[in-house]
Amino acid sequence: MRFNLILNITSRNKVLPINYQYPLHSWIYKVIQSADAEFSQFLHDEGYALGYKKFKLFTFSPLNSRPFKIFKKDERIGLYGDEVQLQISFLVNQAAEKFIMGLFMGQKFSLGDQVSQVDFEVVRIEAQPRPEFQESMRYRCLSPVVISVKEEGKEKPQYKGPDYPAYKALFLKHLFQKSLAVPQSAEVEQGQYMEEGWRFCLLNQPRMKGVHIKQHTPGHTQVIGYQYDFELSAPPEVHKMAYYAGFGEKNSLGFGFALSIK
Hints:
Layout: E1 2-9, E2 15-17, H1 21-35, H2 37-46, E3 48-50, E4 53-55, E5 58-60, E6 68-71, E7 76-79, E8 83-90, H3 97-104, E9 108-112, E10 117-127, E11 136-141, E12 148-149, E13 158-159, H4 167-181, E14 199-202, E15 207-213, E16 221-227, E17 229-233, H5 236-245, E18 258-261
Antiparallel strand pairs: 1-8, 1-10, 2-7, 3-4, 5-8, 6-7, 9-10, 11-17, 11-18, 12-13, 14-17, 15-16
Helix pairs in contact: 1-2
């Protein structure tokens, strides 16, 4: 299920750091943890597991505010309206819809860093319509899709873009592994997905985007992903799983959020 949160800006300051994804991720976790210990423990510690891999099956969109202005030199974004929208997407049972809507309604929170913060209040929540999932669908990435590989001699994962020769195979492999971790998402046997007609096709020129996580702290790192339109062929259950849980890696940090397009 996917929700659109309408947020009112309640502070005089309306300038956010460009890299607000990690603070936003932290706020979402805080809301969940404050309401239901069992559900929050599942999302934070376990998610869905496949061997040593664990998938936390939710993601969220960038903040949608009009008008706005980017201050590149200061790495800030100015919000010039009074209202901001945010979409949050969970791969959970439909019965949890009202429960989750109740968690977020009326929440007050601040986003920012040591330089500037903006205060928000959730004033309305709208459940988004469910797409009709088919075997072939087109998507537009609102946040970057992250694909990484471990390379010999390098401590950190190396982020790859669509020009990497094995990118399509890695995209599909990650999607397939995630589907295996969710019993209801696909009834396919391991190793057979390529023969079952799974396909990934770029529809436009990718745009690279780097996002700083835990900026100005000892744990600071940069995650690099790519935004693009693409067409995916896979079982409808897999489309549903990826639409709600996110494409690629690091979905709970707000990566891999996509809309279905014609």
